[in-house]
Structure formats: C-alpha cells, structure tokens
Amino acid sequence: MNFLPLWRYQNQLIDGAIITLELTVISALAGLVIGIAGAVALKGRITPLRWLVRGYIELFRNTPSLIQIFIVFFVLPNFGLKLPAFEAAAVALSLYFGAYSVEIIRAGLDSIPRSQVEAGQCLGLSGWQVFRHIILPPALRNAYPAVTSQFVLLLLGTSLASQVATDELFHVAGFIESRTYRSFEVYAVICAVYFAMAMSFKALFAVIALAAFRWPRRR
Amino acid sequence: MRSFSLIDFVSLFAALRWTVALVVLALLLGAPLALGLALGRISRFAGLRWAMAALIQVIQSVPLLGLLFFFYFGMPVFLGVQVPALIAVTVAYTLYTAAFLGEIWRGGLEAVKQAQWEASACLGLSAWQQFRHIIAPQALRLSLPPTVGFLVQLIKGTSLASILGFVELARAGQVVSAATFQPLLTYALVAAIYFALCLPLTLWSRSLEARLDGSR
Amino acid sequence: MALVEIRDVRKTFGKIEVLKGVSLDVEEGEIVTIIGRSGSGKSTLLRCINALESVDSGEIRVEGQKVHAKMPDLKKFRQRVGIVFQAFNLFPHLKVERNITLAPLLTGRVEKAKARVLAEDVLTRVGLADKIDAWPEQLSGGQQQRVAIARCLAMAPHLMLFDEVTSALDPELVGEVLKVMEAMAEQGMTMILVTHEMGFARNVADRIVFMHQGRVWEQGPPAKLFANPGTPELKSFIASAK
Q1: Is C150 helix (H, G, I), strand (E, B) or coil?
Q2: Residues C154-203: pLDDT tens digits?
Q3: A116, A123, A134: best mutation site toward chain C, by most C Cβ within 10 Å?
Q4: What is the per-residue burial (b if ≥16 Cβ within 10 Å, else e) of C44-58?
Q5: A67 vs B152, B184, B190: nearest CB
Q6: Do chains C and B touch, with touching meaning 3 or more CB–CB pairs less than 8 Å apart?
Q7: Domains in chain C, please, with CATH?
Q8: What is the CATH topology of the domain spanning A4-212?
C-alpha cells in the first residue's frame, strides 16, 4: 500500500470535489423546485395533472439512477437534444431527486393538522397568510430530516455521473488510477473524501436545524 | 451494426439472473449482519452502541459505487490473494445492505415502547425470550414497509455492478445498445424491466405503510 | 335586530342530517349556552356561525350580514367573530406574543410598534402577562386555552364562540379558564358556548339552549330550565349530567 504517488494529484481531487458539489447543489435546488411544484399539483384539483405527477414519481423512483443518466445522455440526442455530460447528469439527477422530494414535501404539508389551518382562518388570515405563517414553518421542520438525508444520498449519487464522463470526483479517481496504477489507494482516498463531505453536510444541517427550529417539540 | 432482434431481447432477460443473484446474496448475508448491527445499536454497552453507529455512519456516507471499487481493488490487498470479482462485489453489497437494514430495524426496535420490555420482564421472561416473543414481532411489523422500500434501493443499486463488468441487466443493456445502435429501444427496455421488478415492491411497501397508519 | 339570527338551518354530512332546521336568535351582550348530548349538532351549529361549515339550507345572519363560506368579506367577518376550540390550536412554532400579534399585524389592525403592548394587554386580561415570551408547549393546558382566548380578544371581536373549551383539560385546570370567561361575560361580551360544564351554564348564562337530535329541543333561562325541564329528554339529560 502506498499513498504517496497520489499526493501530486490533490488539485485534481479538489477540482473534482468542487464539480461534485456543484452537481449536487444544482440538482438539489432544481429537484426541490420540482418537488414543490409536484406537491402542489398532487394537492390540486386537476386530475390529469395529478396522474401525470404520480406517473413521474413512480417512473423515476422505480428505475436506477444510472439508467436515467444513460437515457438523458445517450438517448435524448436522438431527439435533437444533445446535452454535455455535466448538464445531462444534472438533468437526470434533478428529476431523480425531484421524484423523492414531491413525496417528502407532500408528507410535510400533510403533517400539519387541519385544525391549525382553521385556527388561522378564524383569525381572518388569507389563504396565503395561513400557508406562509402557519403551515410552512412546522411543515418544513417535519420534512427537514427526510430532505437532508435525501440530499446526502444525492451527494453520493452524483458519483454515477462519472459514467458519462462528467469531471466530478469519481471520474477524477479513474483519471488518477490510470496515471498511477494505485487502484486501491485511489478509491480509498476517494471514499474518504466523500465521507468527509457527507459528514460536513450532516453537521451543517444539524446546526441549521438548531438555529431554525427553536420551538419545543410536541410532548 | 445489426437490428434489434430476439437475441438481444433474450440476452437482456438472461442478464436478469445476475441482478437477482446479487440481490439474493446481499440479502442472505446482509440481513443477519443487519440484525447484529441493530441489536448492537440498542445494546446497554455504550462502547458497542458507538462502534455500531460509527460503522453504519461510515457505510452510509460513502457512495455505493465507492464501496464497490474499494472492495474490488481492496480484497486482494487485504487478503494477499486474488479473489473472484463476485466475492468482492458481494462483500460491498452485503455491507451496504447491513448498514441500511440495520438502521431501519433499529428504528423499528426503538419504536416498540419501553413499557413492552418492562411488561414482558414482569412476566418472568428472559431477555432473549422478551426479544424473540414480544419485541421482535412488533418491531418487524413496524419496519416491514421501509424494509421492502430498501429492497427497491438494492435492486436499483445492483445496476452499479455493471460498471465493474458484471453482465447484469444494466451492463447487458450497454452491450446490446452498442451492438444495435438502438440506445432508445434498449434503455427503454432495461428501464421497463427494472420498473416491472420495483413497482410491485414499492406499491406493496406503501400498502403496508397505509395499513400500519390505519391500525395506529 | 338580534346580533345573531339563525333561521331554519339544515346541514348534512354524508347521509347523516346533523342539523334538522335550527332557529335561534342571540341578542347583543347575551350569553347563550348550548347543551346536549354528543352528536346533537351543537358544535356543527357553532362552526356554521363562523362559516367553518356552510349550511345546506336556511340562513345565518350576524350583524345583519348573511354568513356563508364564500361571502365576499369572509376575512373581515372572521375578525369580528372569535372562536376558541377544544384543542386550543395555538401555533406551536410561535411564542405566545407572536401567537397573539400575528393576525392583528397581518390584517393591519395594529402597527408593529404597538403590537407588544396589545399582547401584554390581552394577556393581562387572562392573567398570563408573565408568559408573553413562553412557547405554547411550555404552558399547561389551562394556560394554553387562556392564551387562545387572549389571541381572540386581540382582534376585539363583537361575538365570541366557545366550542367545548374545557373538555380537553385536566379537572383542576378547568376553573382558571371558566374564570376568564366569566370576567368576559361581566364586561358585556356577546358569547355563545357549547359546554358540558353545567355549573357554569347555570351561573353565568342568560339563556340555555338544549339541543337534541339536530333540533333546538327546549330553551329558556337557566333557573327555570334546570328546575322544571319541559321535556323528558332534557330531564334525563340533566340527570345524567350531574
């Protein structure tokens, strides 16, 4: 075992980690937008739209993320939509994350009892005011653990983007491996970097939760 | 280049046996480990609790793809001899399964109220009898929906073995796609097969969940 | 003109007709207590007055204005009619002060600088001025219910509805809530209460309304009604409530 040959590749590692972070954050934000829109559609009255969202959720949750990335990268060009590797991976991962977000956000909204809404209405608040001030904060708190753990899974899942040659961390590993032939050492280091990133996010999310959700839990 | 034919269709389905084999191996070996991890997590020895928590945390904070590569290249380093890729891959999926199922089952065990342990202790049952007859059945009922849900994750996760050259479903798809130049048809078919495997499990998990909610 | 006029109101949930033609007037400053077995339609009637449920037929007027879920100034209407629920329904993520000032601030009743004074004022009226910076979950059930009352008072309502507000409380906490309601009654607030507290109904109410099977079965001043119930149903209800 010899980790020394890897030392000179630290810049590549850092660049790869940055791309991994970009891919994660972009996909998470886009996925959350999809999740919110989907949750609203599921709660709405337009039946065809509800079916469409349900179909989307089942389709993306019941097929591997890897295949989804392949389809966006290899199949969409047949329809004239040729995306570079990073963009293709971001689109596929956003749709994947979005499918999970819809359910999480909907469950968060559903966790607020009807009586809270009525209490707000009875004080003369508008629909939007009730949503913004009465439903949203506790719904966010209830959805927070699921959203953040899904975010960490997304961070780890971006490694699949390496399979369409996105220059993220895992792809960098392949590059270093091809230069050094130190396969085991390379992947041990890569795993450690993912571990460090995942733990940092978990710590960050815990701190945010402490600051944002100060009110005591229901006894 | 040749057109998509029955042969390609058959080769996709033939590849399914590796997908199934990997899932079965991971479950057979991972489930007992998961039970051990779950019990360790609720043990009365703080050291053991911490060690198990750390182990689970590490496995869950590394990409599955990373685990696969780590053991694929690591087994010879650890053991000093070359081992078949199947063994390395099985080790990775087993640990992955153990960590996630262990955490799910711990949640189930902890959701059974403390009063149930106390009540069964009052009946004069031994610790093992309490676990076996009182706690485990209730915990199993509570954790069955997420357990089935994880099974879906595992099935989808076996697609990553393709990257290490296993000719399971996803890899067969790549091969067929390259041979026929029909990525659309091939990947749609591959996705459809995964979908057909996973959707019933997802729906089952959801109905189990709904039944639990209803009985609460 | 009565403050609240209820005319032949009917309401059906699924196949069950909960209100079968209810008529009732409540004058300004009057305290009306609705009693009856569970399922007699008391709570539904209360919820109809506040447009939380809409009536199937008949009509409800408050201050002459016809009440229904799609009335044009529903929000303004609800600011004039306060309701207190059995389960308090405080907002768990807001401190007591914000629970009280949220609606007055959002609806423009009070400006930011004066909001805290308003909260202090209504909290003093329910005897909880020292809890202004507490979280709801840190309070006892009785205290939470008093904050809920204060939250309504901050909107300066013309009419207050109380829906079994002491039913979810431990027995030793019921008294403190009833005392607050008595004080409000003395100050001339118009109040309609659904309650199981017969002592309170007897001592504070101007009028008792006995509901049975979705109808107003019998009504009158408490002394008369409790001493000489006119129907066997009320008689058996009073006997069982003791």
Answers
A1: helix
A2: 999 999 999 999 988 998 899 999 999 999 999 999 999 999 888 888 88
A3: A123
A4: bbbbbbbbbbebeeb
A5: B190
A6: no
A7: 4-86+159-241 (3.40.50.300)
A8: MetI-like fold (1.10.3720)
